[in-house]
Write a structure and sequence with these properties.
Layout lengths: L8 E4 L5 E4 L1 H6 L6 E2 L3 H19 L5 H6 L4 H11 L19 E3 L5 E2 L34 H14 L8 E3 L2 E2 L17 E5 L3 H8 L3 H8 L18 H9 L1 H5 L4 E5 L5 E6 L16 E6 L2 E6 L11 H4 L23 E11 L2 E12 L7 H32 L4 H9 L9 H24 L1 H10 L5 H26 L5 H14 L3 H4 L4
Length: about 525
Amino acid sequence: MNLVIDPWLPVTNGKNQLCYISLNQLFEQPDEWLDLVLRPHERVSVMRFLICIVQAALDGPEDIDEWNGSLNEIPETGLSYLNKWKSSFNLFDEKSPFLQIAKLEPFNKEPTPTTKLDFSLATGSNSTLFDHSGINAIKGMPPRQLKYANLVVSILTFNNFSLGGLYPQATWKDKSTSKSGVKDSPCASQSMLHCFVRKKTLIETLHANILTHEQIFDRYGKNIGVPVWEYFPETFSDNDAIRNATETYMGRLVPLSRWLKILPDKKTLLMGEGFVYPVFPDFVETTAVVVVLKSGDKDERKLLGCKAITPWRELCALTAKRAGNDIGGPAAIENQPPSESYDLHVLALKREKASILDTVESILPVPGSFSESNEKRSSYIDGVKTAEKKAWRLNNSIQTYLSMLMPGMVEIVKNGIDGKRLSKKESEKYRAIRDRAKEKYIIHYWTLIEKQRHLLMDYISLLGTDQDQAREESQKAWLSAISQAARETYKTLCSQESPRQIRAYVAGWQILYPSKSNQQEVA
């Protein structure tokens, strides 16, 4: 199984049909393949792998002028590069298997099933919620076998996103890996968002996300490095090769955070802790977003993660071009022509300590000149803040409704609205009710808002034009969408089936719509 000539890469063709292609086919038909067909964390990992190949094949570009002219060079240089390094991409080679340690030996336990590499499959501590085939009902039943295409994607993904904690052990020469205290892979830190510019074809997308040498020097000094297959560590103490793999731009694109070796049965593998990769703040990935947040009296740099709010509400941070102290969005947006619009593909793996919770994926259209226009950016922020203020008022109205139905909620709601710290004597029962109601309204309200986000973008795209009437109408449409979302959410969550519920409903409505004219809408 050689990645260069054997089909493994899942893509859509010009007819939007799923196809599996080889790396050679990707570059031989650059206009045929539109996009990858992968889950968010897999897409990040495969994109990094493909970008690494393109960047190495071009051996540049040096500056933005070379970058502009490099798109047409990618197919030919890509094929030439793959032909030169073809032997490095053999998945089951005995001497140098792709991204594996050929001399890795078992430690003291049975091998690990290859399904452990796929986070969605039930293996070990992975949940069986969506994978009932993982329940081993028959003792001694042999492990499942991943298809070779899935195996390639899973190896890339596991090295980028596997979380720290307890791991199997293996031995490389006289070095045995640790069982506990294993560090995170480089792309999983802080549930960080990864952002890529998306274009019409996959080759154009790859071109949009390669960096110039000037950009790499600006971020990492002279540490461009080379792909890990060009300078693969020969031992666990091969310091120069390990430094290239863990501390340079090119080396980190395809990490070796776990030592792996697929066994001859193709169903099991040896696995252990790999090389340790510096993460934020010691190393900032070029697809990451760095923001400044207040921490007491100090400003603190942090990665923008997927835990807090949906990505579209942070569009200004996502598209901020790099400023001092490494603050800003992904490096790729710096190369986009200011007047042209583009799509920003935002992806993440959501985690809680050493557990994977979910994946996040958003495609955000970015209008032309958005990053350069203070008017557009400030108006977008104002539009989002208006929706957030309505969400705050909606929360208070729903909690008021609950307090009138359950007297025990009164103190809890009062403390919650005033922003005071909740007392220890509060009933856990009522606190749970309040939290469940808040979770429901947040999901319902912001889902409705996100469906109407295009209205906000219509308004933003009309700023700076002479279409005054259309601009005013689009702004009113956005404000109306916010009001409608709050109204629908309140009506959905707050019943009116009894006189007592009706009285509570009216009290909450008066908080949501305090003006007399809106109070009349209750009926």
